[in-house]
Fold these 3 entries.
Entry 1:
Amino acid sequence: MREKTERIVREWGDACDAEISIAVLGGAWKPSILSLLGEHDVLRFGELSRLLDEPTARVLTRQLRELEDDGLLTRTVYRQVPPKVEYRLSDLGRGSMPLVDALTSWGAGYAAHQRRELARLDPEPEGLDAVVAH
Amino acid sequence: MREKTERIVREWGDACDAEISIAVLGGAWKPSILSLLGEHDVLRFGELSRLLDEPTARVLTRQLRELEDDGLLTRTVYRQVPPKVEYRLSDLGRGSMPLVDALTSWGAGYAAHQRRELARLDPEPEGLDAVVAH
DNA sequence: GTAGATAGTGACCGAATGGATACCATGACG
DNA sequence: CGTCATGGTATCCATTCGGTCACTATCTAC
């Protein structure tokens, strides 16, 4: 477990269990990483990087390490050259998939709602720009 | 909408809808605030403060303003002295309750799992300390 | 001998965030 | 006149976090 997560798990009571979820899942790329591993079962570092929008190695590594420390995924290193490292979901990680899906669909609904609001309040004559995935 | 939320809603694509949810719900006290308003229907500033663990007024105000800006709750000011301000969920806020509940129950399960792990790896002879709510 | 592929690490930076402390405006009440 | 209650604001600080840039180790293939 990450030190941060451990502190939360040890010290916080039931009043804020939701914040535990957010502490664990709430990092840049983390929900996307979990979704991808839910779909692909096993992915190498480079594959993950390409499927996401190529975050810098530094950032991706940090996210993966945190998810590993928090027990959501496993990292398998093959001692060979060039290196090969595989990531896959742990049981805990698989258990988080329904929540990740819930986050995704509520977020999508929220974004759609707010985009309608924006269009209503602030109509742009230009056509919609292509929406670029993060 | 908060500027931050608007940027996310405008610029991010569907790849990371989950991160929209986290941007909106992921602040200190926010899930707790939403839960309390789900239970109590309407709460004044001071009542909220007492039901939570008395965060500083500065912090609570900021969380409430952000939730209001993001459209999850409404703020009603009665122009009287001493001041009276009521907070309640908006439709958007009510719609977030299932997600908040999902966050809470996954977080609780995760914490329980990890506490078992901690106890297994690092058995403390002392009795359990009372767990203090955040 | 040098280029390429893979999976990183280390040092650093700017912005955002939680939180502490001090202060404020108003009217009722005694 | 002074005090209390309510719902804040202003200022500041330390930490965290995403991100950039430079750098590395090792073997294979040319």
Note: Residues 4, 27-28, 55-56, 58-59, 62, 80-83 of chain A lie near DNA strand D (CB under 10 Å from a C1').
Entry 2:
Amino acid sequence: MSDAELPPAPRLPTRETRPARSTRERTLSRDAILDVAMGIVDAEGLDALTMRSVAHVLRTGQASLYAYVTSKEELIELLIDRVIGEIRFGGEPDPDRWQDQVKEAARQIRAVYARHGDLARASFARVPLGENALRGSEWIIGVMRAGGLPDDVVALGVDLIALYANAIAYEESIYLAEGATPEQIAAYAEEMGRYFAALPVDRFPNIVAMAGPLTAGEGDSRFEFGLEVLVRGLAAMAAG
Amino acid sequence: MSDAELPPAPRLPTRETRPARSTRERTLSRDAILDVAMGIVDAEGLDALTMRSVAHVLRTGQASLYAYVTSKEELIELLIDRVIGEIRFGGEPDPDRWQDQVKEAARQIRAVYARHGDLARASFARVPLGENALRGSEWIIGVMRAGGLPDDVVALGVDLIALYANAIAYEESIYLAEGATPEQIAAYAEEMGRYFAALPVDRFPNIVAMAGPLTAGEGDSRFEFGLEVLVRGLAAMAAG
DNA sequence: TCTAACAAGGGAACACTGTTCCTGTCAAGT
DNA sequence: ACTTGACAGGAACAGTGTTCCCTTGTTAGA
């Protein structure tokens, strides 16, 4: 679409709807829809989230959902902010521990997405501007500033950390959410290792030599490594 | 899908198909399909890439495409490897310049995706194991090893750099590929700045204070900042 | 009390997707 | 000259998000 405009203004949604028809018992609401949608994503993944599947669980037709949610796009955005809202950011910013606190925030982002299927892959495409996302940014920025990082480093740094946590969550969600057990993932890594080792040595000498290390680290250590790199890099940037 | 297995073995595809029917002029082939598909992605974006749209340009039916490509999934993978193949990696690894060389590789990845609509968003979900991707990995690993980084740092580092370049390319492709002009993006950033500045100061003191820096940097400087952070962080990891 | 207005609910249809079935067709091999 | 077999592609299938528009329960007004 070439006439697509960038989103006009970030709204904090407040639309309220009263139940009208129902002889009680049947109360459709935005929250009910979100609950069901979240359940579907958790249990079956993002691909299973269709307007039909949501409507079916609520024993209604798809059309009814559009009274509470303007599009599937909006529904997903609401889900994302809800998930971000689950994050519990630590206490007061501590100038001596900004590195640990930043890491902890990133860990929380990763963890919270890990609990919700492959929702992370949807979050990646959207700039999270919901209430909860703002709260999170506010906290991380506070931590970095308290740590004495210059404002321009903080501005780009918070963006970078968020990008990293999201990207990792996205990548990991691809395998995890669609039925791949940890065993399968380990087996896949092993197979990759053998594949690398078996490549033609003359063309891929380094990959062959590194077949081991390349397929060694599992998820956690990989994530922590990147975190450490980022934090050390940010510290170096602050130093000049 | 819970019975979905991880991809079995990474194949370097070599299926060859000879033209049979044609009275010349009408020669369907895998390459012709890829050319057309690439053209569609470049011009109209990934969403416009449909088996129907490809078939239409080739003046044929969708079904015919499946003789050369087993699925749309495979078609996209082939496109991605083709794009990665456009990257020209620099010359010999230079021990004194590994940081610059790694940066340059990342820049190339970003640049090449920027030339091809929002294809980056598809690449993100897949582990690129095509011939060309391997060549790229081989080169970057060589550079890092020549630079004296320990093997475990190299292994995770190359992964991290690739993740970063891909993630940035993905993010940027979202806006760029769907008709948003640089002016619109700048306008959007400005609007964001005003939005941040107008937030309630008591709840978001840091965001309000940082409204300027947060929405300041445009694409290039943002990308370069992250690159610098990563490279410095990797250097620090190597130091211990 | 009866009625009119309203708004939520939802069935059905629309336009689209990726994929497969199955028949027609043409070029080469015998 | 005739069979063979791979390519081509129309049509159909099972999905998707979204919209149209009629039904129906509730409420306000006469």
Note: Chain B touches chain A through 70 residues (CB under 8 Å).
Entry 3:
Amino acid sequence: MSFETTTGNPVNLAASDQSPSSDCEMAVVLRALGHPARLQIMRALASKGRCFCGEIVDMLPLVQSTVSQHLKVLKDANLIEGTIDGPRSCYRLNTEKLNDASVLLGQLTVTSEAASVCSTNHDLT
Amino acid sequence: MSFETTTGNPVNLAASDQSPSSDCEMAVVLRALGHPARLQIMRALASKGRCFCGEIVDMLPLVQSTVSQHLKVLKDANLIEGTIDGPRSCYRLNTEKLNDASVLLGQLTVTSEAASVCSTNHDLT
DNA sequence: CATATTTATCGGTAAATACCGATAAACCGG
DNA sequence: CCGGTTTATCGGTATTTACCGATAAATATG
């Protein structure tokens, strides 16, 4: 990951301080979603509300330890929450984070449409 | 990437055929968005409409070849399009793909809310 | 208490990713 | 046609990721 220059520049990235500091955090969220198995997990949680780890393992063509790691990635990105229920772990979505990501993408398209209109007008000047 | 079992199972993933085959493709899109530099590029394109490669290089604390590779990742994911303009390349967003991603995330949250309500009712039975 | 179930974590390996510098290809200006 | 821009791609290295098997911790059950 890192995203720093080797010359030790600040992580500021650019003069345009469009994004406060959430850029890296949002990248973590999107990268967490960027794997077919994890998307599958998210879909299962979305439709079922909650799942035990074991149910998810049964769903995927992956061994338990691998699934557990995928769950950890999603949990570290705050996309899901897990609670302990007896000897099992029960997972559910964290809708907030999911919404954040959705809103971000939405903003990109909206902003882009505005910019597009603007530049079209410009061409006519 | 791969996402197959070592035992040679089909890539089908599960009995729940919720996602046709777009799961991998969507993962590519989300993973492409999952890097701070690439998010920054997307934002720049969203606000400016289009940018030359060089402008993007000036924006980021990364050398030209690295930026070029990030642009390639975004282009391979169909998130941006590039056209050649003289000796330069001009990039712009592909709003469609961005919309696809946004819609997918939206669906996850919506479905999740529905499931949540449903399971609440269930508890009361 | 011994055993079975469930899950998280550790150790290891193969593959992918991020980054850089160097170079090549396409173009423009004189 | 020659030197300067601009960008894509190649080669190389360090880090991260994905996956598995093995193991440990926690809990239930007989």
Note: Chain B touches chain A through 61 residues (CB under 8 Å).
